[in-house]
Design brief:
Number of strands: 4
Structural class: alpha+beta
Shape: elongated
Radius of gyration: 15 Å
Strand order of the largest sheet: 1-2
Distance between the termini: 46 Å
Largest sheet: 2 strands, parallel
Length: 67
């Protein structure tokens, strides 16, 4: 079996943070699902702050309001 994980993130993470996330999530899949690392697929999606809302307000608007 090939686990495929889709992870959505609000934009702004560094490439180093994304590499660390891929590594850690892969290791967790290997442990939890008893699969080989080369079978794990991870898709990272950056979502713009304007395109993600919480409690009726975009993250962008909330950050601007709180700044």
């Amino acid at each position: 079996m090939m686990p495929i994980l889709n992870i959505a993130l609000i934009e702004g993470r560094s490439n180093e943070q994304k590499e660390a996330l891929i590594s850690e999530v892969t290791a967790a899949c290997v442990r939890a699902l008893d699969v080989k690392p080369e079978t794990v697929r991870i898709l990272l999606q950056d979502i713009a702050t304007q395109d993600f809302g919480v409690a009726g307000e975009s993250v962008k608007a909330k950050r601007e309001r709180l700044a």
